[in-house]
Design brief:
seven-stranded antiparallel sheet; alpha+beta; about 35% helix
Length: about 500
């Protein structure tokens, strides 16, 4: 089982299949709409997202949601695919480690005549008037002039063998690039576990927010803006202004958009979603503000830090019987029964910029929640007055809160570092070629001061370029041999010697 698994992960075909699946998955993640981080914490917004997906994809929506295609990069199968690719890279690298080390550090220098003759790039020098040892020293100088490392071995029969290689370190570059790729993936995954992350942070308009986590500054959201498509109520883009305040001074201001966060001291503020809210105040007949309390489904919500006379922010975090966003607020009247308002937000009902929001109000006095004294929309402009509640005025103002994702991270520097290492490694492995040459120097029978020489070379890639380089190397070796004999140029031929260079299957 272990051997079969090892061989599977070492298979190039399996690696190609994994890469193709990853490419297809990434393409799907680009084409298909993806759920914003933290959107599941807002049932109404999530339901709206799924309803729009249902219109677009029909009956396939349920299957797509179950398989995680709307949150693809956080799905189990996508993460499993990343893990499998990392395992494949690691196992392939380990599998190639031993053979690569043996390749760049050969155990023997000798080469057979059949092997040399099988190589396309080959040069032969016959009857060279030099002893094998002198010829070996001459060819070693020629090879080193071309930046080759040279190893030498002499056989008992008198034959001398040379092995030369150049840029053998390039064979190790692939290990560094593969390691950098794995570390890049691990670093990207690890950064999500470093620092802290707060999702679905509700930011009320204009109200400073303390982050905690040892920070000593506040952030507030102001001036939210929405752009809609011409002639439509569909949102095209939205953005808001964020201000960082420290020590009573505003230190940073920025207009943020989706995917364009504010970054301050390794803390990112991402705009995820927006939520329509309303400012609410109640006044008596003399124009004095009345204290208000927020209400939950089980009763009043007592917040000792809130000023009961300040505008009450209605977040519409509950639902009414029709499934619409709803909120409850209680107005305290000195010496009289409290008034409770149930306010439903008709978010899809358009209103002008200078008009009140589309809010439907039910008013109850005391605990008579089965007998509303008012049940209608608020006026488009001006305060709400109720005949059954003389002397009271209710003011509603339109506003927008934002939903943020706030995270401390160390940026992309660690990921960029490994990406640069990986890119450099891949570039070097593509453009630097590991080349090898073998030389066999055999003494001529009956004449110990003459020898026959075979020089052959091999390049793993860029073979056309190496063909020209080998031709230059062969001519340099010839010139060095001629010079070593102390004779005139081409004297080897005059004394019966013969030089032949075989390149790409032909001789010249």
């Amino acid at each position: 089982m272990f051997e079969s698994t090892w061989n599977l992960f070492c298979s190039v075909r399996f690696a190609v299949v994994l890469i193709l699946i990853l490419a297809a998955a990434t393409t799907l993640g680009t084409i298909l709409p993806q759920i914003s981080p933290g959107l599941r914490n807002f049932p109404l917004d999530y339901a709206d997202f799924m309803s729009r997906a249902q219109v677009r994809f029909g009956a396939a929506t349920g299957v797509m949601e179950w398989t995680g295609l709307f949150d693809l990069y956080n799905s189990f199968w996508f993460r499993l695919l990343i893990v499998l690719i990392c395992y494949s890279i690691i196992i392939c690298t380990l599998n190639r480690w031993g053979p690569t080390l043996r390749l760049i550090n050969p155990q023997t220098v000798r080469s057979s005549e059949a092997f040399l003759n099988s190589l396309n790039e080959r040069a032969q020098f016959s009857g060279v008037p030099l002893a094998p040892a002198a010829a070996a020293a001459t060819l070693t100088s020629a090879l080193k002039r071309s930046r080759y490392r040279v190893l030498e071995e002499t056989a008992p029969s008198g034959e001398v063998y040379l092995y030369a290689d150049r840029d053998r370190w390039s064979k190790m570059v692939t290990f560094f690039s593969h390691a950098a790729l794995v570390l890049l993936i691990i670093t990207a995954a690890g950064l999500t576990q470093v620092g802290w992350r707060e999702q679905s942070v509700f930011m009320a308009p204009g109200q400073p927010l303390k982050l905690g986590h040892g920070t000593d500054f506040t952030v507030r959201q102001t001036n939210f803006r929405i752009e809609k498509f011409a002639g439509s109520n569909d949102v095209k883009e939205y953005w808001c202004d964020l201000t960082i305040t420290r020590g009573g001074q505003d230190v940073v201001k920025k207009t943020i958009r989706v995917n364009d966060p504010l970054r301050y001291e390794d803390i990112n503020f991402f705009l995820v979603q927006y939520q329509e809210v309303a400012d609410f105040r109640a006044f008596d007949a003399g124009g004095h503000a009345l204290p208000t309390n927020a209400m939950g489904e089980a009763g009043p919500i007592n917040d000792p830090t809130a000023d009961a006379l300040q505008p009450r922010l209605m977040q519409f975090s509950q639902k009414d019987s029709d499934g619409l966003p709803m909120d409850l607020v209680q107005i305290k009247r000195p010496g009289q029964d409290t008034v409770t308002l149930q306010v439903s937000n008709y978010t899809n009902t358009p209103r002008g910029d200078n008009e009140n929001p589309a809010l439907f109000v039910q008013a109850f006095v005391g605990k008579q929640f089965d007998k509303p004294v008012y049940r209608d929309f608020i006026p488009r402009q001006g305060p709400l007055t109720i005949a059954a509640l003389p002397g009271l005025q209710f003011q509603f103002g339109r506003n927008t809160a934002t939903v943020m994702e706030i995270a401390e991270d160390y940026g992309l520097s660690p990921i960029a570092f490994w990406f640069v290492i990986m890119t450099i490694g891949f570039a070097l492995s593509l453009y630097i070629t590991f080349t090898r040459c073998w030389v066999r120097i055999a003494p001529v029978a009956g004449d110990p001061v003459r020898c026959d020489i075979t020089l052959a070379g091999l390049a793993e890639k860029n073979k056309i370029t190496f063909e020209a380089e080998f031709e230059k190397l062969a001519l340099r070796a010839r010139d060095y041999l001629v010079k070593a004999t102390g004779e005139a140029d081409h004297s080897a031929t005059d004394t019966g010697g013969r030089v032949a260079v075989a390149a790409a299957g032909g001789e010249s």
